[in-house]
Automatic annotation (TrEMBL):
Originating organism: Fulmarus glacialis
Role noted for this protein: May be involved in cell proliferation and cell motility.
Alphabetical keyword list: Glycoprotein, Membrane, Signal, Transmembrane, Transmembrane helix
Locations listed in the record: Membrane
Range of residues in the leader sequence: 1-19
CC per GO annotation: plasma membrane
Transmembrane residue ranges: 126-152
Record's bilayer topology term: Multi-pass membrane protein
Protein name: Tetraspanin-7
Gene3D superfamilies: Tetraspanin
Length: 160
């Protein structure tokens, strides 16, 4: 049991170190994947499009860097900026969303990449605290399992 807990502890420790060391690569990968999701938006109506809509609605953002990122997509030429970018769900005519100057007044202008990364970084202290607490419990479990094993091997543990 102590060996299993030690193995899990080491895996979590390695994952945390790798995540910290490669955090810039993770950001770059997220940005490129978000750009790909915008490019392929609503082509296949898959979960990537739903994820982009959810991010834009939840964080009140639009595009990767800003709302003008949508102008480079095929979706924009067909339907304009997606409705998930709109500030008001009542006022979102398709012709206004096809015109970037009019759309600027009706959609969120901030990009999603900065908002997602800043939200993740602000929550990182909470994640680190919870992880540290779990690691402490794992270490206590490892110590107690080793003590129990030692008592059993020394025949100091009384059988019931």
């Amino acid at each position: 049991y102590a060996m299993l807990l030690s193995l899990i502890f080491l895996i979590v420790l390695v994952a945390a170190v790798v995540g910290f060391v490669f955090r810039h690569e993770i950001k770059t990968s997220f940005e490129s994947n978000l750009n790909l999701a915008l490019r392929d938006y609503n082509v296949t109506a898959d979960w990537h499009s739903d994820a982009v809509d959810t991010i834009q609605r939840t964080l009140h953002c639009c595009g990767v860097q800003n709302y003008s990122d949508w102008e480079k997509t095929d979706y924009f030429t067909q339907r304009g900026i997606p409705r998930s970018c709109c500030k008001s769900q009542d006022d979102r005519s398709e012709e206004d969303l096809k015109d970037p100057s009019k759309a600027k007044l009706k959609v969120f202008v901030d990009g999603c990449f900065f908002l997602v990364t800043s939200t993740m970084e602000s929550k990182m202290s909470i994640v680190a605290g919870i992880s540290f607490g779990i690691a402490c419990f794992q270490l206590v479990g490892i110590i107690l399992a080793c003590c129990l094993s030692q008592y059993i091997t020394n025949n100091q543990y009384e059988m019931v």
